[in-house]
Design a protein that fits this description.
By secondary structure, the protein is mainly alpha-helical. Among the domains are: about 150 residues, 3-Layer(aba) Sandwich (Rossmann fold), CATH 3.40.50; about 160 residues, no CATH class. Helices cover about 65% and strands about 5% of the residues. The N terminus is likely disordered.
C-alpha cells in the first residue's frame, strides 16, 4: 500500500482507509434514452407530468395512446426536463408489451433488471421475487428517483413495481387506456392537433415556417394520421428529395396506400413506412429487412454487420442512413433500437422478400458472432469451467474481439448480458438449440462474477430440458452443474446438492473427471457454508485427489480456498495460511483477479484474528482493497473495509474501526448485501459499546435484528442477540441479558455452530455470576468448557473459561 495513501492511527500504525481512500459516492443510475431531437409541442401534457405541485396527489403518471402517437417521446422529453429534480437517478426500462417476437417482461424479470440498473450487485439481490420487490420498493421509497416504464401491457402488470410512498416519480406508457387506480394519474395522448402536426413536419423536413399553414402540408399530415412516427418518416423522405414538392410526396403516399394490403390498422401510416423504405438504397433496405431477424431489443453496429454479412464501416454508414430516415432510434453511442411498428413492417416485407434459407443463413451469422464474442470475453476471465472453453477451438478470423484484459471483458459482459440472455431465449424458440446450449454454458462461466443467480438458474434449466429431449448428456451435465451453482448462491443448499450430484453422475458416464472434481469442491463449499466442517474437508479431499490425478489449477485453487475457510473457523493458523497462500499464488498465475482478492482478504483475516499481527493483516487487506476498486467490485470493497475495521477494533483504534465500518456499511447498503449489512451493524455496535456509546450500540443492534428477520439471516441474528446480552450486562441488567441468550443459543444450535454455542454459554455464565448465582454460573462455564474442548484449535476459549472457573473457586 502506497505511503501517501495512508495515515497513522493507533499504536500499531493502523491504516485509516476511510480518511485516505474514500471512494466516490455510489454511481447515480442514468439510463434515459437520448432526448428526442424533433420533439413537437405537447406543452400541456409535459407540464402536467413535470409539475412538482402534483407530487403530493400523484407520483405516478400513465400515458396511454395508439402506436406511433409519441408516448415514449413525451415521457422521455419530460424525464429529461425534470431530471435535475431527481438527483438519486433516472431509470428507464422497456417492458416489451408490444415488441414483435418478444414476450413482455415478467415481474420477476423486470424487478431484476431494475435492481441491476440501480447498481444492486447480484450478491445483494434477495433469492425470492417477493424479497426483490420489497427491496425495489424500499429503494425508490428512500430515494428521490425518476422511473420510466415504457411499453407497459397494463397497470395490473406493473402494480407490484410501483412505490407506495416516498418522493420518487414513475412515468408509464401503454397502448391501451389504463384502469383508474388510486395514486395513478392517467393521461390519454391523442394524435397531434393539425397545427402541431404541421409544425413537426415542417421542422423535420427543413421547410420554411410559413409552410405550416400550407394546404398541402395540412393534407399530408392528415394522410399520416397526424401520427409523429409517420410524419417524421414522410419528412425524412421529402428532405432527401429536394426536387419533390409536398404535393409530389402526397401523390406517392396515396399511390402506395391504394396498392398495399396493410398489416397495420392505419393503412396510410404503412404507406409512409413503405415510402421511406423504397427511398433507401439496396444495401440499406437489406439492413432494414434483416433487423426483423435480430433477437435483441437493442443492437450494435457490430451485431448488425454480422447479421447482414457486411463490413463494420459500411454497416455504420448504412445504420446512419436508417437513423436519418427515422427508421431506427439511437439509444446511446453505438446502440440502436427499432420502433415495434416499424419492426412489424420490416418483418412483413422481410417474409415477402427473403426465403427461409436466406433468413436462416443470416440468423446463423449473427449467432456465430455472438458466440465468438462471448467466448473471447470468457477466455480472458479464468474460472472453474475454463477447461470447457478450450473445446470451442480457435476464434475464426473476422470475429476477434477488441477486448484485451480481464477488466475489459467483465465490463463488456455486464453491458451485453441482457442482450445475450435474449439471444439464448430466442435461439431456443426458433430451434437453434445448439447455440442456446453454447451461449448458456459461456454465460454461466461469466455469471459467477457478474450475473443474477436466478437468471443463471433459468437459462440453465431451459438448457437442461432441451438437452434432455435431445439426449445430450454433456449438455445436461453442464446445465445441472450450473443450476447447482445458482442454487448455492441463493442459499438453496439442499437443492444445490441434488443438482451437483446429478451432474457428477452424468460426468461419470462420459468420463469428465474435472467436472467430478469440481462437483466435490462445490459440495465441500456447501458443507462449509452450513458449518459442517468435517464433512466439508472430506468432500474437498475427494476433489483434491481428482485434481492430483487430473491436474487442473483452477479446481486446485478452489479446493485450497474453501479448505482455508474451514481452517480459519477452526483457528488453525498454520494450515489456513498455507491454504490461502497457495490459492493466492495459483489465482495470481491464472490472472483471476476476483479470486486473488478473496484469497488476499482471507490472508489478512488470518493474521488479524489468529495471529494478532495487524500490520501484516493490513498489507494483505490493502492489496485486496486495491484489486476490489480496480475491478469496480463494490461488494468485495465493502467486505474488505469491514475486515479493516475489525483490525482497527482489535488494535483498540476505535475511531478508525468506526470509520471503516461505517464506510463498509454505506457500500454494502448500496449493493444491498443484507448479510454484510447485518454483520457490520453488529461489529459496529461492539465498537460503540467499547467506547461507551451504549445507546448508539443498542440502536445499531435493533437495525441488525430487523435486517436479519426480513432476510432470514440466522447466523447474524444470533450474533446480534449475543451482543445485546453483553450490552445489558454492561448496564447492569443481567436478567435481560439471559433473555437475549435463549433464542441465541437455539439459533447457534440449529446452525451447528459450536463456537457460537460456547460464546453463548460463556456469556450466560457471566450473567448468572452477575446475579450472584455462582453455583449455576460455574455449571454453565463448565458446560462451555466441555464443549470448547471438543473443538479444534479452541485454546483461547478454553483459557478464558479456565480463568472464570478458577476465579469462582
Amino acid at each position: 500500500m502506497a505511503a501517501d495513501n495512508s495515515i497513522a492511527a493507533g499504536h500499531v500504525g493502523v491504516i485509516n482507509f476511510y480518511e485516505a481512500q474514500r471512494p466516490e459516492k455510489r454511481p447515480v443510475p442514468q439510463n434515459l434514452p437520448k432526448q428526442p431531437s424533433n420533439f413537437t409541442d405537447r406543452r400541456e401534457v409535459v407540464d402536467t407530468i413535470c409539475s412538482m405541485e402534483s407530487a403530493e396527489d400523484s407520483r405516478i403518471f400513465a400515458v396511454s395512446g395508439m402506436a406511433g402517437v409519441g408516448k415514449s417521446a413525451v415521457v422521455t422529453h419530460a424525464a429529461h426536463r425534470m431530471a435535475a429534480d431527481f438527483p438519486d437517478g433516472q431509470v428507464f426500462l422497456d417492458m416489451r408489451a408490444y415488441t414483435p417476437d418478444r414476450f413482455p417482461l415478467r415481474v420477476d424479470e423486470a424487478v431484476g433488471a431494475l435492481l441491476e440498473i440501480v447498481h444492486v450487485a447480484p450478491q445483494g439481490m434477495p433469492s425470492t421475487i417477493e424479497g426483490r420487490l420489497s427491496l425495489w420498493r424500499s429503494i425508490i421509497a428512500d430515494r428521490r428517483m425518476l422511473v420510466v416504464l415504457d411499453n407497459v401491457q397494463g397497470i395490473d402488470k406493473v402494480s407490484e413495481l410501483l412505490p407506495g410512498r416516498g418522493k420518487s416519480r414513475v412515468l408509464m406508457t401503454c397502448r391501451r387506456r389504463m384502469d383508474i387506480v388510486h395514486g395513478v394519474t392517467p393521461i390519454d395522448l391523442e394524435v397531434l392537433p393539425s397545427r402541431d402536426a404541421a409544425v413537426l413536419f415542417v421542422s423535420s423536413a427543413g421547410l420554411d415556417e410559413q409552410a405550416i399553414d400550407d394546404t398541402g402540408v395540412q393534407r399530408l399530415v392528415a394522410l399520416c394520421g397526424n401520427l409523429p412516427l409517420a410524419i417524421n418518416l414522410a419528412a425524412a423522405t421529402l428532405r432527401k428529395h429536394r426536387s419533390w414538392s409536398v404535393d409530389d410526396l402526397i401523390d406517392r403516399l396515396t399511390q402506395l396506400d391504394e396498392g398495399i394490403v396493410a398489416a397495420l390498422d392505419n393503412r396510410a401510416v404503412e404507406a409512409a413506412f413503405e415510402l421511406s423504405f423504397r427511398d433507401l438504397g439496396e444495401r440499406a433496405r437489406s439492413v432494414f429487412l434483416q433487423l426483423a431477424l435480430h433477437p435483441c431489443s437493442e443492437f450494435t453496429v457490430n451485431s448488425v454487420a454480422a447479421l447482414c454479412g457486411f463490413g463494420k464501416i459500411e454497416t455504420q454508414e448504412l445504420m446512419e442512413t436508417l437513423f436519418d430516415h427515422f427508421l431506427i432510434e439511437e439509444v446511446r453511442r453505438d446502440r440502436y433500437r427499432i420502433h415495434d411498428l416499424l419492426k412489424q413492417f420490416s418483418r412483413r416485407i422481410m417474409q415477402e422478400t427473403l426465403d427461409v434459407q436466406e433468413r436462416e443463413v443470416a440468423t446463423r451469422r449473427l449467432y456465430e458472432f455472438v458466440k465468438w464474442q462471448c467466448l473471447a470475453a470468457a477466455r480472458l476471465v479464468p474460472g472453474p469451467s475454463g477447461y470447457l472453453l478450450a473445446e470451442y477451438g480457435e476464434i475464426p478470423a473476422g470475429n476477434h474481439s477488441v477486448l484485451d484484459s480481464y477488466i475489459s471483458a467483465i465490463d463488456w459482459f455486464r453491458d451485453e448480458l441482457s442482450g445475450i440472455i435474449e439471444s439464448v431465449q430466442h435461439a431456443e424458440s426458433i430451434d437453434l438449440t445448439p447455440y442456446s446450449w453454447e451461449l448458456s454454458a459461456i454465460c454461466s462461466h461469466m455469471m459467477r462474477i457478474c450475473g443474477d443467480p436466478r437468471v443463471l438458474a433459468e437459462i440453465s434449466e431451459s438448457a437442461f430440458r432441451s438437452a434432455e429431449r435431445y439426449g445430450n448428456l454433456p449438455v445436461q451435465c453442464e446445465a445441472l452443474f450450473n443450476i447447482g451453482l445458482a442454487q448455492m448462491n441463493q442459499s438453496r443448499h439442499r437443492e444445490a446438492e441434488g443438482a451437483l450430484r446429478g451432474s457428477a453422475e452424468l460426468a461419470e458416464i462420459f468420463g469428465d473427471q474435472i467436472r467430478i472434481g469440481l462437483t466435490y469442491a462445490y459440495l465441500g463449499a456447501i458443507s462449509q457454508m452450513q458449518g459442517q466442517y468435517e464433512e466439508a474437508l472430506e468432500r474437498l479431499a475427494k476433489a483434491s485427489e481428482t485434481f492430483v490425478e487430473h491436474p487442473y489449477p483452477p479446481g486446485e485453487a478452489m479446493v485450497l480456498g474453501v479448505s482455508g475457510v474451514v481452517y480459519l473457523q477452526w483457528r488453525d493458523a498454520d494450515r489456513a495460511l498455507e491454504s490461502f497462500s497457495r490459492a493466492r499464488e495459483i489465482f495470481h498465475d491464472l490472472g483471476d483477479l476476483h479470486e486473488e482478492s478473496n484469497a488476499l482478504t482471507h490472508l489478512g483475516v488470518v493474521y488479524e484474528r489468529l495471529l494478532q499481527d495487524y500490520d501484516q493483516a493490513l498489507v494483505y487487506l490493502g492489496e485486496a482493497l486495491d484489486l476490489n476498486r480496480k475491478l469496480g467490485d463494490r461488494y468485495g470493497e465493502g467486505w474488505t473495509l469491514s475486515d479493516i475495521g475489525l483490525i482497527c477494533r482489535a488494535a483498540e483504534d476505535f475511531d478508525g474501526a468506526a470509520a471503516n465500518l461505517r464506510l463498509s456499511l454505506e457500500i454494502l447498503n448500496d449493493v444491498n448485501d443484507q448479510q454484510g449489512v447485518a454483520r457490520v451493524l453488529v461489529d459496529l455496535a461492539s465498537v460503540e459499546r467499547s467506547v461507551g456509546r451504549l445507546d448508539v450500540a443498542r440502536e445499531l443492534l435493533a437495525r441488525a435484528l430487523d435486517s436479519c428477520e426480513r432476510d432470514s439471516r440466522r447466523r447474524e441474528q444470533a450474533s446480534a442477540l449475543v451482543e445485546l446480552a453483553i450490552l445489558d450486562l454492561r448496564v447492569g441488567k443481567p436478567s435481560d441479558s439471559l433473555a437475549w441468550l435463549v433464542p441465541a443459543q437455539e439459533l447457534h444450535a440449529s446452525l451447528g455452530d459450536r463456537f457460537g454455542q460456547v460464546r453463548v454459554l460463556t456469556t450466560r455464565g457471566d450473567a448468572l455470576a452477575a446475579l450472584n448465582d455462582l453455583t449455576a454460573a460455574g455449571e454453565v462455564w463448565a458446560e462451555a468448557l466441555g464443549l470448547a474442548r471438543t473443538l479444534p484449535h479452541a485454546s483461547a476459549q478454553i483459557e478464558e473459561l479456565l480463568q472464570r472457573v478458577s476465579a469462582r473457586d
